[in-house]
């Protein structure tokens, strides 16, 4: 019920459609009752009363009622569809917008397939309540109320007999609703799982093929698909158990009506026409009872779906703006980590990390895999927040900045390159539509991407596949570096961004970055000494702690882990003696 209340906030924007829809559903009920009444008049007045002159009027009324009913149905549909489609659009937009605001952690903890099924299946369930459920529910109530209002004055006894089996039908319909509700919940959950399986398989199809796991994947899908089938089948079994009972009881109501009504006619208590009218209206009394299960079901399905949607909508982003956030146009790019620690759950990832970077400096971060390099740089644009300590940008805690402003100061090339299935130019100019092509080309120049782009058939207008399909790993990295460069942000982060690029090209990129007019403060995560040796500061991370820091020369002299890595990477071309002579002495 709470969920339906929340939905009302969306529905009330379309009051006209909602109340208009209700009005025409009620009109539809009224027009559907006219033929039953005319049946009675035709039997009592035209046939038994021999008033043939009335027949024409009744027939015209019959046609008019039918026509008006059809018109009411049409308008009712127009209103309920308009309501439900508008509602669907608004709710989808809100959910989508909200997803954009949620923090990284939310996406770490929720599977894409599941989120997709909220965007589709759950949304559709909510829509159906207003497109269909609203009609069923309103019709059910008004059929009972109006039909009883007409029939009771005619014959209380026959009305009661007509309704005699209704409680029983209602009981079974209700039981059906109760029993089927958890199954439908399972069906929905299974639908999410099935979606997730398909989504993960398609995104990871290259890995699947590379590992020859098609059979395993087919079996996995088969299992999920069978589970989905079984759950739907279980729901159908419950339906098939209760449905015949309700049909039977509905049929028995007709028998009761025939038997008792027939007697009342013979005894002269009611006319044959009234009895016919009862007969015509009987389905209007049985239908709502039979629909109880369906309606209860639809409400509970919708509230389960709405609950899942509102769960997301009510999830507060973990990282939010402070009330009086500091707005900035452009920072200088001075960055200081002050005793920064970070934990994910119980796991300590960064421990007491401190360093200082002047604007325009290059800070390289090295360390074994899993030592916390990406976690460290993720703190600068506040993708995560430190558990302890502070990240200062231009002397201000980055939590004090307006989040949008802060993130616009930082351009990042992530380890896992993601490109959209658009043209290369629009990938580079992502978020800056209409950006001058010359600027795009200059950025591609700096990232050493221009040549290979221009060699393509459509050059910068070449449309690339999903996630950059059709480009090599190194080409994707260079396009994503260009995308970061074109933003001209004061802080640039390259997280292992040249790992797939050859050393020569990497060197060219670094030189071009250094030669830029407005040098960004550059964070460089890399594993190759050649990538970091010109950095102003090199930080060596080990299990989340900075264990060494300094310039290339200082670290070589230090003879610590950096020195070991250097020896390892250059053992083919330089021997220890030479190192001693060049750097240590
Ligand atoms: N969102 C997360 N939730 C929980 N643990 C995480 C999360 N992200 C990273 N970790 C863990 O934090 C540790 C450091 O990860 P991080 O990605 O920062 O390492 P890294 O030094 O960049 O490694 P690599 O060189 O392999 O990219 C790892 O043990 C990783 O499992």
Automatic annotation (TrEMBL):
UniProt membrane topology term: Multi-pass membrane protein
Principal place of residence: membrane
CDD domains membership: ABC_6TM_YknU_like
Domain of life: Bacteria
InterPro entries xrefs: AAA+_ATPase, ABC1_TM_dom, ABC1_TM_sf, ABC_transporter-like_ATP-bd, ABC_transporter-like_CS, P-loop_NTPase, Type_1_exporter
Any one cellular-component term (Gene Ontology): plasma membrane
Subcellular location: Cell membrane
Organism of provenance: Halanaerobium kushneri
SUPFAM superfamilies, per database record: ABC transporter transmembrane region (SSF90123), P-loop containing nucleoside triphosphate hydrolases (SSF52540)
Residue intervals of the ABC transmembrane type-1 domain: 19-301
Name recorded for this polypeptide: ATP-binding cassette, subfamily B
SMART domains: AAA
Keywords assigned: ATP-binding, Cell membrane, Membrane, Nucleotide-binding, Transmembrane, Transmembrane helix, Transport
Domain ABC transporter, first and last residues per copy: 335-568
Annotated transmembrane regions: 16-34, 54-75, 128-152, 158-178, 242-261
PROSITE patterns recorded: ABC_TM1F (PS50929), ABC_TRANSPORTER_1 (PS00211), ABC_TRANSPORTER_2 (PS50893)
